[in-house]
Amino acid sequence: MATSLLKSTPNVIHRRQNHFAFFSNSSSARNSVPVSQQRRSRSFPVVSMSATPVQTSLVKSAPSSTNTGLPIMVNACTGKMGKAVINAAEAAGLHVVPVSFGCEEESGRTFDIGGKEFLVHGPSDRENVLASALEKYPNLIVVDYTIPNAVNGNAELYCKVGVPFVMGTTGGDRDLLHKTVEDTKNYAVISPQMGKQVVAFLAAMEIMAEQFPGAFSGYSLQVLESHQASKVDASGTAKAVISCFNKLGVSFDMDQIKLIRDPRQQLEMVGVPEEHLSGHAFHMYHLTSPDDTVTFEFQHNVCGRSIYAEGTVDAVLFLAKKIEAKDQKRLYNMIDVLREGNMR
């Protein structure tokens, strides 16, 4: 989570004053308004997102002394999340099988990832490859960090072959995704957010929404999320938080989310460190009372991908435990993983 703005550096505070009304319609008008009055504005204080973010390094951890030998298959292994998961899984003692699904252009090629060669298969032979992998590794669990438009097709394949999976890919038809798992009684962890600490925040939001419905009735909401330019869809995490605010009485449509994908804006307005432009997740939710006298801000800033990779490994270990116990429940999310309390 981002640290308090009380700890912001003078440079950050100066930037906040200069760009406080980033979403205002009139830049000239806002420049003439004293800062003290700007702070009462409904305009979204984007630059407060430059408070110290969570730093998540992709430096490989030391190998675990306890090797579980649990086999996992990481699809889209050549992607940045795929590589991060492979790093984290091997450090945790899991056995990452040397095959993966990829795009047609990668089909039949081998890629060196962390000193290990992976053979990538294209869309045409996925079912045979997956069935063969399951036959060779009966306890196999698949990790999916592919692309949004592959979510449903991949899930249908995993369920058809009978391979448990952890779905970290966002997008797709989420209702159909859940229905596919429920109808086939396949084991799966599905979550648009794998960062354990961020999930804990989401859980707290859900509890607040459930216990205090309408608590923010009449408040206006502004939401900004900044991700690397390659992320084409809106954040699933942001959508989940907005759903909670809707239950709390705030009127807000998902298409009102401000998506920041331009690197220059990310650097100058949002405050993303330059070295993390290619991998970050900055979110801010700004609430204002009807009379402009009260504001609330919630934010979580993450640099890098290891927070998601570590959470993914915890989800894999959790799912393996549920399968071994023959748990009657088959479909889980990251809140279920958190509640188990056995994270590393």
From TrEMBL:
GO cellular component: chloroplast stroma
Residues covered by the Dihydrodipicolinate reductase N-terminal domain: 71-194
SUPFAM superfamilies with a match to the protein in the record: NAD(P)-binding Rossmann-fold domains
BP GO terms, sorted: diaminopimelate biosynthetic process; lysine biosynthetic process via diaminopimelate
Main location: plastid
Pathway: Amino-acid biosynthesis; L-lysine biosynthesis via DAP pathway; (S)-tetrahydrodipicolinate from L-aspartate: step 4/4
Domain Dihydrodipicolinate reductase C-terminal: 198-338
Domain of life according to the entry: Eukaryota
Protein name: 4-hydroxy-tetrahydrodipicolinate reductase
Taxonomic source organism: Sphenostylis stenocarpa
